[in-house]
Amino acid sequence: MKKVFSVIFISLLILSACSSQKSGSPIEDFNYTDQDGNSFGLKDLKGKVWVSDFVFTNCTTVCPPMTMNMSELQKKVKEKGLDDVHFVSFSVDPEIDTPEVLKSYGESFDADFSRWHFLTGYSQQEIEDYAPKNFKTVVKKPQNDDQVVHGVSFYLFNKEGEIIGEYTGDKEVPFKQIIKDIKAAL
Question: pLDDT above 70 covers what percent of the chain?
Fold first, then answer.
């Protein structure tokens, strides 16, 4: 029994250390291509509070519910009159997700493109390196597979471009907490 408890305790410590995101973590500058074919980067988000995630358009599992939840968050933010909040969805399958494909995908989820940007314009290797280094999450496209392994979190950024919150994005999304944290960041 003592051995089982020790294994569980150590496992929980490892998992919590791996999954926690430090408050105020800055990310590296980026400049990619949005759904309209325009350049979009960290400089465009300067002074803004924003929420991001990682998705891809031909995902058969977590991305549709994640994108629906981001759409719901966008709606709730608008209803609360929080006009200076932006949303960024990084594609984890950039070779398939062209600007045109991302635009169609965003439209199917009622994205307000004036505040929600779907990004591509980088290599698969770039996003596989960028995500773990800056968001502490995995992105990996296995060879001979059209599905991409990636995290399911939503990340909240303050006006300085630092991660100040991480939330589950695929199910049981804590919308009230995210809204509360957005208000505090504004």
Answer: 87
Q: In DSSP terms, which residues pair with 32 in a beta bridge? A: 40
In the chain, the N- to C-terminal Cα span, in Å, equals: 49
3-state secondary structure of 14: helix
Residue pLDDT, tens place only, 143-169: 999 999 999 999 999 999 999 999 999
57's CB contacts (< 8 A; 6+ apart) are: 63, 91, 93, 96, 97, 101, 102, 105
Residue among 107, 91, 84 at smallest CA distance from 33: 91
Residue tagged 């058969």 (tokens): 60
User: How far apart, in whole angstroms, are the C-alpha atoms of residue 39 and residue 41?
Assistant: 7
Beta-carbon contacts of residue 48 (< 8 Å; ≥ 6 apart): 84, 85, 86, 159
pTM for the full predicted model: 0.87
Burial 67-77 (b: 16+ CB within 10 A, else e): bebbbebbeeb
